[in-house]
Amino acid sequence: MAEPRPAAEIAWFSALCDDDYEYLGVPDPSLLSSWEHCRDIVLAAERQNFDNVLLPSGYSLGIDGTAFAAGIATLTERIRLLLAVRMGEMWPPQLARQIASLDQMAGGRLTLNIISSDLPGEKLESEPRYARTREYMSVLRQLLNGQPIDHHGEFVDLVLDPPRVQTLSGRCPPFYFGGFSDAAKETAAAQADVFLTWPDTVAGVADTVAEMRRRAKKYGRTLRYGLRTHVIVRESEAEARAAAAQLVSRLDPQLGATIRKRSLDATSAGVSRQSELRELSDADGFVEEGLWTGIGRARSGAGAAIVGNPDQIVARLEAYRAAGIDAFILSGYPHIAECESVGRLVLPRITHQAPPQP
Fold it and tell me: Comparing C-alpha atoms, which of 83, 80, 84 is closest to residue 107?
């Protein structure tokens, strides 16, 4: 008999990268990333009983995720913190000490979203960039597991004992990782704990999970799978669709294209798939029931939202669960208001992980 699947992990998103709007593409100074605004998003997510919260990372936009994590760790008690860390920006031994210290500040609640991005001012081709990421992930995991390093690779040449400071568990926090190129998927199969995918049809997500299971099996590994998506929930489907239409009602198409292109991942394989979904959508932007692609008109990366009433949202999440998804990273606009709506209308209907007690 198959073992029962674990309860779902439901996370929210704190917009550290200037990604909060009432009307998509229309900047609102009160919603720009700041310590106060992003703090309030995380505190709202904890009040609503979300399990985790993504703290994204960027260079040109928003505020620093690591510094923010240190501050918010002392103000939260239960919610886990999914800190985005860009591989290559800090030497692994220093990064290990930083992560272990943050985990202690957070009472063992730190998780890591590994980002394989170009460094500010650098342009590295995909293959060597992912090779660097893979090396950094391996060395970082060993150090955070308290293991000495004897590694001689292309990007890391290091013989070193682990730092004295350790995470509360004495183990490396789980690595969440996303990417859709062949190099990204191989990196995830070899080193990630949770593979993150972006919004897609249920069949598309199932295909991605099946592919990644095959890849991970080659390394003798088993991954968990997560979905990063937006959500718009209202008491009725008509209200939810109206909210979606209102969100893009003031969007200038040229501005939307500019916003998409300014992202560092604007030409990635994952973004190409989001563009393809928009092209396959109907006149209202729906590519299949409940999956609205309008978000991608003014946002790179995750470019679709699950839209509907509470029953429809839950049914959609359960369909993704059946396709192999265990973790959801949700967001919505404006982030605090939608966080409260999802917390009130959706979370009580889903069996999900109780945040760990301090």
Answer: 80
DSSP character for 165?
-
Which pLDDT belongs to residue 143?
98
**CATH class held by domain 9-230+332-349:** alpha beta
**Residue 291 β-bridge partners:** 288, 306
- What is the C-alpha separation between 344 and 44, in angstroms, rounded? 12
**Do 53 and 14 contact (CB within 8 A), yes or no?**
yes
And the tokens for 283? Answer: 């006149």
pTM of the model: 0.93
The most distant pair of C-alpha atoms in the chain lies apart, rounded to whole Å, by 61
Distance, in Å, from the CA atom of 243 to the CA atom of 351, rounded to the nearest integer, reads 27
Residue ranges covered by each domain of the chain: 9-230+332-349
Question: 120-127 long-range CB contacts below 8 Å, 24 or more apart?
Answer: 120/59, 126/181, 126/183, 126/184, 127/183
Angle, helices 126-144 vs 182-191, to 10°: value is: 10
Cα 2 to Cα 255: distance, rounded to the nearest angstrom: 50
Say how far apart CA 245 and CA 297 lie, in whole Å. 12
Closest CA to 45 of 332, 316, 302, 314: 332
Q: Where are the beta strands (DSSP E) in 120-169?
A: 149-152, 157-160
Q: Stretch 53-76: mean pLDDT, rounded?
A: 95
